[in-house]
Amino acid sequence: MNITTCIFDLDGVIVDTAKYHFLAWKRLAREQFNRDFSIHDNEQLKGVSRVESLNILLRICEQDVPENVKLLLADLKNKWYVEYIKKITPDEILPGVLKFLEELKSQKLKIALASASKNARLLLDRIELTNMFDCIVDGTVVTRAKPDPEVFLKCAEDLDMEPEGCVVFEDAIAGIEAAHAGNMYAVGVGDRHILYKADMVISSFKEINIDSILNLPNLKKYE
Ligand code: BG6
Ligand code: MG
């Protein structure tokens, strides 16, 4: 099957917002529980929804809080996170991303955005990329978190494309698993030791061009 569509995760793939999520979670752990939250702990939160991220943080900080307090804590973290991303500019788009997106567009491939974040549209507006995407599916729409393939399958459905012709770009293990669960190819963006389940791993978009993607069907698909 020919590749027709490229689906991009947002946080950690198009822009390095993982650092801002981390700073906000770290502040929450420090101010609310007087606990440290390390960059290593933060790996577990990548690609995970806001509420589930909070649950993981509470486990790490050995805290048990009622559901109504969880909502307040999640809102507080989000308030701080939004303060960071409101200051983001297009300069923070990761290296090689813009050139790659423009290349895909010029070759008439469809481009979709699939993110667990409820702040995805705000962020896309800040980096002035909203109009680049043929379809945007974000945390305000999906009900099942990665590794469930819902967010990616919804992109394929909205664009009227077959999942087998889609390539997903992801920085999270859960996202690679979700792509495969949806019968799509997965390109890992980041560390190949962490993202070893992907069909191909890049450390930056400067390393690939459209030919690398069109050759993907020659690779063995993950079972
Ligand atoms: C994902 C991030 O894209 O979105 C996670 O990788 C984040 O770290 C999740 O928790 C939800 O984001 P938000 O903006 O809705 O809190
Ligand atoms: Mg991500």
**Could you list the spans in which at least 5 consecutive residues all have pLDDT below 50?**
none
- Overall average pLDDT: 93
Number of strand segments: 6
Q: How does the major sheet shape up?
A: 6 strands, parallel
Listed once per kind, the bound small molecules are: 6-O-phosphono-beta-D-glucopyranose, magnesium ion
Order of helices and strands: EHHHHHEHEHEHEEH
Could you name the key traits of this structure?
223 residues, alpha/beta, six-stranded parallel sheet, globular, binds 6-O-phosphono-beta-D-glucopyranose
Quick summary of this structure?
The protein is of the alpha/beta class and 223 residues long. It is built from nine helices and six strands; from the N terminus they run βαααααβαβαβαββα.
